[in-house]
């Protein structure tokens, strides 16, 4: 993956650190100086054993938490320097989220769930509908739009969450164990959808997972251990072969993940 | 931890959470106790002379109405309570408790909640009973001294009624828990709340609802005289049915249409709150309907009370128009001389006086042989105008045209008779051009029906009847010259009076029960409105707990808190003001119908009571909104 130095970076992470329980007591450092760059169109999986700092890293990058040290530049803007109001604007306009739980609102239809962020941002209703249709097509949900969450399967709900996260066309989508609660078929459907969104729409995705199968859909895999990036794999082959390579690496890094 | 301890700690928590429930139950006990206290306590024995048995009957009736209300209110409140509890019951099942024990725990807890309300309500009731009676009498414009007195009977009656109702609810809840399957208890909280009803059913409901409301309002407008009593009944039934169907059909239908119209829906927070509303209204429609009916009923009750009171005021004013009346069937008396006599005998002052010549006609002339006891008379237009001129009473009728008369009536509380538009006197039929309830002719106008005729018509009937001369006086001190007035009476040798006298003592409080009724109705009104407000308050509090998870999700996906606050505001505003608007519309019709029946102009009552409800609801709404925001949206991360 060759890049020019002039390429626009969506996220620039410099020497990030984060610890917990510092006040007077023993501090546990969870993130110990991580640096990485994320470019438009990237699909990155972050893997690592429990306690490696995956979720903490995701929370820092997605502005839900603040680092102790280091810098995060989102689209050139230093997150450390912006106020709460701007932060919430950034969260609204530039970032999308998918969580392990589906997090759809049970009191509205799938269509309205997907439309919600756009409508709240004051986007015109015709435009909202156009984009909802487009996203629904990407995630294979077109015929389920009128249904309510309780009428959907887990996989459909999670794809709905994905569609909702990407409908605002965020700079970057953060996904925290998105396949964690899904069976293998639903997982595959979701990952295929994410992959297709990444390819067709150039959606930039950063996904935290402990599942090698899920990670194999990404273009790059970062291995996190003990608060640091230990290794990076770049996909050059078919997905299946990439999957094998991820598994091999996991074994060579010493130990089964969870 | 023992079952009792667990219940007690739950109760302590629920007192905080269901403070409003305890408060409104306690308030109900307070009011009920005070109603009973009016009947049984001897503090109000001073009212004996004012037909206390009537007051007691009215209070008893009010108590029964209130008791029925209390039944429904408690039913509703404990259901909310039970629903909320059931959600936590799953945990106890995992702790190894069986249904019976959980049921027992619930019963103890509910008992404690009820006991708190009961004790607080009774304590406040006894403590403030004197104040309550003072306010009651003050509002009723009865001035007597009240002393504090305590009697056990009202305490016992209140206790019995309260525990009968509340105990039933406890048993009901206990049975409901014991009978539930473990699975139902575990999933009880998470029922499938979104049940999409079939389009046809809701379309039928919508159409029926619109028809019922329209028909109900139409019937209300048609309600006028006693003969249209059926219309009134139909109006009540149709409006209640219409309101239920409106909340079950029309409004959900409208909201669903709003949800389907994406062009409308996708406008900022609307996406959130309209969806939430659509979801809520299906679940809460009974509550909305109940509150709306309750409020409309209380406004109507208040209207009825005020109408009675207005009439009563006018009766009193009618009676107080003159103090003395001297009636002569023959000799002409000198009014000036009588005025001088009054002023000299008793150092009195005559405020105004009048005299009039009226013609008493036999019943046959009025074709009213059926009413043997009715007495009829006529008076000429010029005479009445002269009386009005002298006394300062207003005469607001245009000059009579040929073939017209004016009906001089007196005020009564409620009339069963319908208004005639025509009267036949002798051979001639007259159009009744107007009706007047001012006591121009004084006390005789109570006992006789008078018509005002054109002077030439009056002359026409003179040969048919006997003339009577009326002398009326309004004085400062009615007792001072009473003896002098009595001395004016003249009898013929065979004992028949040719000059009669009448001393019209002002209202002696015999009908003071009307004023007490009025005051009680005001109390009832305030209590019912507070209850209606607290029902919604309870519901919103309950919803807040359910909504919490939704707001957590919304915050997670990056929706700013400000947006959520706005959305919550819209939704809760609807919850309070939708029933209010419905009530306002319905009460306009109800009050209008009532006004027709009572022949009183009640629009002021309507406006004032609506504004009062608006004020109460706004206060409750604001408290509710703050509570909801703290509970559902919160500040936590």
Please state the CA-atom Rg of chain A, rounded to the nearest Å. 18 Å
Shape of chain B: elongated
Q: How many strands of chain B?
A: 10
Calculate the terminal CA-CA distance of chain B, rounded to whole Å: 33 Å
Query: Would you state the CATH class of chain A?
Result: Alpha Beta
Please tell me the overall pLDDT of chain B.
Answer: 82
The major sheet of chain A is characterized as: 6 strands, mixed
Q: From N to C, what is the helix and strand string of chain B?
A: HHHHHHHHHHHEHEEHEEEHEHEHEEHHH
Fraction in beta strands of chain A: 15-25%
Name the assembly state: heterodimer
Helical stretch count of chain A? 8
Number of helices of chain B: 19
Main sheet overview of chain B: 10 strands, mixed
In the CATH hierarchy, the third-tier topology of chain A is known as Rossmann fold
By secondary-structure content and strand pairing, the structural class of chain A works out as alpha/beta
Shape of chain A: globular
Topology pattern of chain A, helix = H, strand = E: EEEHEEHEHHHEHEHEEH
- Name the CATH architecture of chain A: 3-Layer(aba) Sandwich
Structure description:
- The complex is a heterodimer of chains A (258) and B (637).
- Chain A has 258 residues and is an alpha/beta fold.
- Chain A has one domain (44-62, 81-252): P-loop containing nucleotide triphosphate hydrolases (Rossmann fold, 3-Layer(aba) Sandwich), CATH 3.40.50.300.
- Chain A contains eight helices and ten strands.
- In chain A, the strands form two sheets. A six-stranded mixed beta sheet of chain A has the order 6-7-8-3-9-10, sandwiched between helices.
- Chain A is globular and about 50 Å long.
- The model of chain A has no long low-confidence stretch (mean pLDDT 85).
- With 637 residues, chain B is of the alpha+beta class.
- Helix content of chain B is 65%, strand content 10%.
- Chain B has helices at residues 3-17, 19-40, 52-94, 99-127, 129-139, 152-179, 182-187, 199-222, 229-260, 262-265, 270-319, 335-344, 381-391, 444-447, 455-461, 482-486, 512-556, 561-598, 603-633; strands at 324-328, 350-361, 375-380, 404-408, 422-425, 428-436, 448-453, 466-475, 490-491, 497-503.
- The chains are: A alpha/beta (258), B alpha+beta (637).
- At the A-B interface, helix 2, helix 3 and helix 4 of A face helix 10, helix 11 and helix 17 of B.
């Amino acid at each position: 993956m060759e890049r020019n130095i002039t390429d626009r970076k969506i996220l620039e992470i410099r020497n990030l650190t984060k610890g917990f329980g510092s006040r007077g007591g023993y501090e546990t450092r969870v993130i110990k100086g991580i640096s990485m760059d994320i470019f438009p169109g990237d699909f990155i999986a972050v893997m690592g054993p429990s306690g490696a700092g995956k979720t903490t890293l995701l929370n820092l990058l997605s502005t839900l938490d603040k680092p102790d040290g280091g810098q995060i530049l989102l689209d050139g803007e230093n997150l450390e320097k912006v106020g709460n109001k701007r932060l919430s604007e950034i969260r609204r306009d530039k970032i999308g989220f998918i969580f392990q739980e589906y997090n759809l609102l049970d009191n509205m239809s799938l269509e309205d769930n997907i439309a919600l962020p756009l409508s709240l941002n004051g986007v015109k209703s015709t435009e909202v509908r156009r984009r909802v249709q487009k996203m629904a097509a990407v995630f294979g949900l077109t015929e389920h739009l009128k249904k309510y969450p309780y009428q959907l399967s887990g996989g459909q709900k999670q794809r709905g969450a994905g569609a909702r996260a990407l409908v605002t066309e965020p700079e970057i989508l953060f996904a925290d164990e998105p396949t964690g609660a899904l069976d293998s078929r639903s997982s595959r459907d979701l990952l295929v959808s994410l992959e297709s969104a990444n390819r067709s729409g150039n959606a930039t995705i950063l996904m935290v997972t402990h599942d090698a199968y899920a990670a194999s859909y990404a273009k790059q895999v970062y291995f996190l251990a003990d608060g640091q990036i230990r290794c990076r794999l770049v996909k050059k082959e078919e997905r299946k072969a990439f999957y094998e390579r991820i598994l091999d690496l996991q074994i060579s890094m010493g130990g089964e993940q969870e | 931890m023992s079952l009792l301890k667990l219940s007690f700690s739950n109760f302590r928590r629920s007192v905080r959470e269901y403070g409003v429930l305890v408060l409104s139950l306690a308030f109900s006990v307070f009011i009920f106790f005070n109603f009973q206290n009016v009947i049984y306590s001897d503090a109000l024995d001073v009212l004996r002379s004012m037909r206390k048995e009537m007051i007691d009957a009215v209070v008893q009736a009010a108590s029964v109405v209130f008791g029925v209300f209390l039944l429904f209110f408690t039913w509703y409140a404990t259901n909310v309570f039970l629903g909320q509890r059931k959600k936590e019951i799953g945990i106890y099942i995992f702790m190894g408790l069986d249904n019976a024990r959980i049921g027992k725990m619930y019963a103890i807890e509910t008992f404690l909640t009820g006991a708190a309300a009961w004790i607080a309500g009774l304590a406040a009731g006894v403590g403030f009973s004197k104040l309550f009676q003072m306010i009651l009498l003050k509002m009723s414009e009865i001035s007597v001294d009240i002393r504090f007195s305590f009697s056990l009977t009202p305490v016992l009656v209140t206790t019995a009624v309260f525990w009968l109702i509340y105990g039933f609810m406890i048993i009901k809840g206990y049975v409901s828990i014991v009978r539930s399957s473990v699975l139902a208890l575990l999933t009880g909280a998470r029922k499938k709340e979104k049940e999409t009803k079939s389009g046809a059913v809701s379309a039928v409901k919508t159409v029926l609802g619109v028809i019922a409301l329209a028909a109900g309002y139409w019937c209300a407008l048609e309600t006028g005289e006693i003969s249209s009593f059926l219309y009134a009944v139909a109006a009540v039934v149709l409006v209640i049915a219409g309101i239920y169907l409106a909340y079950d059909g029309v409004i959900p239908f409208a909201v669903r249409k709003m949800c389907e119209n994406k062009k409308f829906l996708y406008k900022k927070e609307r996406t959130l709150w309209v969806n939430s509303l659509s979801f809520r209204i299906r679940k809460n429609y009974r509550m909305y309907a109940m509150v709306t009916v309750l409020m409309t009923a209380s406004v109507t009750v208040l209207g009825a009370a005020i109408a009675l009171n207005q009439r009563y005021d006018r009766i009193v004013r009618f009676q107080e128009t003159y103090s003395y009346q001297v009636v002569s069937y023959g000799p002409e008396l000198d009014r000036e001389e009588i005025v001088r006599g009054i002023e000299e005998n008793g150092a009195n002052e005559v405020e105004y006086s009048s005299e009039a010549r009226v013609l008493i006609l036999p019943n046959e002339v009025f074709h009213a042989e059926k009413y043997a006891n009715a007495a009829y008379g006529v008076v000429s237009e010029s005479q009445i105008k002269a009386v009005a001129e002298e006394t300062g009473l207003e005469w607001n009728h245009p000059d009579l045209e040929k073939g017209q008369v004016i009906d001089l009536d007196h005020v009564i509380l409620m009339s069963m008779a319908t208004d005639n538009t025509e009267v036949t006197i002798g051979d001639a039929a007259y159009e009744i051009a107007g009706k007047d309830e001012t006591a121009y002719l004084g006390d005789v106008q109570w006992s006789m029906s008078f018509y005002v005729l054109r002077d030439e018509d009056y002359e026409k009937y003179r040969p048919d009847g006997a003339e009577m001369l009326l002398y009326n006086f309004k004085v400062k001190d009615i007792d001072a010259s009473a003896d002098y007035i009595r001395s004016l009476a003249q009898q013929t040798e065979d004992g028949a009076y040719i000059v009669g006298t009448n001393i019209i003592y002002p209202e002696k409080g015999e009908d003071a029960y009307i004023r007490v009724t009025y005051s009680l109705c005001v109390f009832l009104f305030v209590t019912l409105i507070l209850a209606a407000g607290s029902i919604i308050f309870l519901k919103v509090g309950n919803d807040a707990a359910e909504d919490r998870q939704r707001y957590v999700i919304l915050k997670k996906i990056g929706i700013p808190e400000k947006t959520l606050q706005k959305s919550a505001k819209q939704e809760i505003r609807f919850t309070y003001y939708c029933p209010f608007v419905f009530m306002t519309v319905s009460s306009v019709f109800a009050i209008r119908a009532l006004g027709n029946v009572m022949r009183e102009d009640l629009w002021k009552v309507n406006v004032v009571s609506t504004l009062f409800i608006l004020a109460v609801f706004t206060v409750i709404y604001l408290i509710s909104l703050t509570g909801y925001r703290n509970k559902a949206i919160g500040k936590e991360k």
